[in-house]
Design brief:
Blueprint lengths: L6 E5 L14 H16 L3 E6 L7 E4 L5 E4 L5 H4 L1 E11 L2 E13 L5 E8 L7 H4 L10 H21 L7 E5 L6 H14 L12 H7 L3 E4 L10 E3 H7 L4 H11 L4 E3 H7 L3 E4 L2 H10 L5 E3 L6 H4 L2 H10 L18 H23 L8 E6 L15 H11 L2 E6 L7 H17 L4 E5 L4 H10 L2 E4 L11 H7 L4 E4 L4 H4 L6 E4 L13 H22 L1 H16 L4 H13 L2
Parallel strand pairs: 1-2, 1-8, 2-7, 8-9, 9-12, 12-13, 14-15, 14-17, 15-16, 17-18, 18-19
Antiparallel strand pairs: 3-4, 5-6, 6-7, 10-11
Helix pairs in contact: 1-21, 4-5, 5-6, 12-13, 13-16, 13-20, 14-19, 16-17, 17-20
């Protein structure tokens, strides 16, 4: 296979199909959207990820709102085609066999992108090794490192086994795959010595490192420490035995304090590094001052996230929008009545699903706010509920509204689980005054319903921790305005009163240690009461104008078609 122009995209998680739960949240869903647009644009891309036979997890919430987890087992054999080539990696002195399963993502132009899921559940492997790829982000630190060995080292070897021998660029979607840089350097050392793995001296020469860097691209997605994997060197030496001496040679360069930092490994070995929004690029530059950090703002795959009624509206008024997302700017020519009618259909679908899942009596005529994010403390899902008395007063003055929440906490994130439980407690306080529901087991299907069916999209992160955020972009595709903190993508997408509304002012100088909840909650309540609810109820034409601008200005730009075009010119084929 001639692969010299291929882009190899490595990602620990990916959301490419509602029936394949190999994603945890925004990072994986972004990967899926990226691959769909790559197929649409005919970009020669090949994708490497892990199989995760038991998925991330299925979320269960008890009566008190406490989260528990179940395996999300899915029918692998029914969905993916097994590939014959195998490769092996060495873990703790054992040879671990890896196989790949293939899934083709097809684009609107007829092109397709292959996604290879790596799997260690093979009879020849040791019992402990067979479970390495079972759960996304599962297990302890050792298990996590083993997964990253399979992804980074095993991923490169599998691509070679499949015939991808002359790949142009290796794109790391977060630092999970950073070990691929070591494998590439090791490959070059082998070529220089012209020896087999068993014969070569286990070292990586400094010269080969300079040849690896031009091949690699690194996208970092969060300033939050939990998003940057670190492993003690003692554990690294125990697990990675295939070329242990290579770490001994270079560990002082990217292992300060005797810790292998996957972010630094990726930074040191990539010629192009980027954050996922303009503001995030600046924040990342401050975090890693000695590196040259760029930014490419994330996007969403418009055709995937447009609800059926909105997609039909676009088909009627903007032919070719799937092939040319920028043409969505012509949404300003669609009548406000038609925009309202399409949104009403999407809203009725959401309300119907909410009532069915939760046994509630939500109403399609009532103003509906949507908030669906990973349940992490810094995302501040409770900000809207900061002062329940004030919230109840707003409902009395401006008329009823209803709240739809969803989102999973990581199984080991007790603070995130407490956020969900607290929202359930507040629901009891609001009972009979404001309707609130927390939908369990948030997934792509629910995300499509909530982002298209809500009347307003809420996002309330603690600045500057929101790297980008894509849920509001999905809402924009459906004409749903955002009401959000000016962080991440919304610092670029917010035109006050035109595409949506900001909560408070510009907080670009904030630090993550500043507690601005009381201030931000007050700003949220004031604008909701004085601007947004009155406009929705009394001036529907003005609200519809905001909806049209959300599509025309935001959906036409914050999409993966534009995003990938920037990767092409700035990184892939530069």
């Amino acid at each position: 296979m001639d692969g010299k122009d291929y882009i190899a995209y490595f990602t620990m998680e990916i959301g490419i199909d509602e029936a394949i739960p190999t994603y945890a949240g925004g990072l994986g869903v972004l990967a899926g959207d990226t691959v769909r647009s790559a197929a649409d644009l005919g970009i020669p891309m090949v994708v490497v990820t892990l199989l995760h036979r038991k998925g991330y997890f299925r979320q269960r919430l008890d009566a008190s709102g406490w989260q528990s987890e179940e395996d999300a087992i899915w029918p692998v054999a029914q969905l993916l085609e097994e590939m014959q080539p195998r490769c092996s990696i060495e873990i703790e002195g054992r040879q671990v066999q890896v196989r790949a399963w293939k899934y083709k993502v097809k684009g609107v132009s007829g092109s397709s992108v292959p996604v290879f899921f790596l799997d260690t559940d093979i009879e020849q492997n040791d019992a402990s090794d067979r479970s390495i790829t079972d759960h996304l982000y599962g297990g302890d630190m050792r298990h996590r490192l083993c997964q990253e060995v399979v992804l980074g080292i095993g991923g490169v070897r599998m691509l070679r086994a499949l015939g991808y021998n002359e790949i142009r660029r290796f794109h790391m979607n977060e630092g999970h795959a950073a070990l691929l840089t070591m494998e590439l350097a090791y490959e070059l050392s082998r070529q220089a010595w012209d020896m087999a793995y068993e014969q070569i001296k286990r070292t990586i020469s400094p010269e080969t490192v300079y040849l690896v860097k031009p091949k690699c691209i690194f996208t970092t997605h969060t300033p939050v420490p939990a998003g940057h994997d670190k492993f003690p060197l003692a554990l690294v030496h125990q697990v990675i035995t295939g070329y242990q001496d290579a770490f001994s040679e270079r560990e002082q360069e990217f292992c300060p304090d005797c810790v292998l930092n996957m972010t630094y490994l990726a930074l040191d070995n990539s010629y192009y590094i980027n954050g996922v929004a303009k503001r995030h690029g600046k924040v990342t530059q401050q975090m890693y001052a000695k590196y040259d950090i760029h930014s490419i703002t994330n996007g969403v795959h418009a055709a995937t996230w447009a609800s059926p009624s909105i997609a039909k509206l676009f088909d009627e008024h903007i032919p070719g929008w799937r092939e040319d997302n920028s043409s969505l700017r012509y949404a300003l020519n669609i009548s406000k009545r038609d925009v309202w009618a399409a949104h009403r259909q999407a809203k009725e679908m959401l309300i119907g699903r909410v009532n069915k899942l939760a046994g509630t009596d939500f109403e399609p005529d009532v103003f509906t706010l949507g908030f669906a994010r990973r349940a992490a403390v810094y995302k501040r899902a409770e900000l809207l509920l900061w002062d329940t008395g004030r919230l109840i007063e707003i409902a009395k003055k401006q008329g009823p509204f209803q709240l739809v929440y969803a989102g999973k906490a990581h199984p080991q994130d007790m603070a995130g689980k407490e956020v969900i439980q607290h929202i359930h407690q507040v629901k009891e306080v609001l009972k009979g005054k404001i309707k609130l529901v927390y939908l369990e087991d948030y997934d792509i299907e629910l995300a499509k319903l909530i982002t298209s069916g809500a009347d307003l999209w809420l996002n309330t992160p603690q600045p500057p921790l929101e790297a980008s955020g894509t849920s509001g972009m999905k809402a924009a595709v459906n004409g749903v305005p955002s009401f959000s903190i000016l962080d991440g993508w919304w610092a670029e997408g917010c035109i006050e009163g035109v595409t949506g509304w900001a909560i408070g002012g510009d907080k670009s100088d904030e630090t993550e240690n500043q507690d601005t909840r009381a201030e931000d909650a007050s700003a949220l309540y004031s604008k909701l009461e004085m601007v947004i609810l009155p406009m929705f109820r009394n001036e529907p034409d003005r609200y519809a104008e905001v909806m049209r601008h959300a599509i025309a200005l935001n959906a036409s730009f914050f999409n993966t078609e534009r995003m990938l075009s920037q990767y092409i010119t700035k990184a892939y084929f530069k």
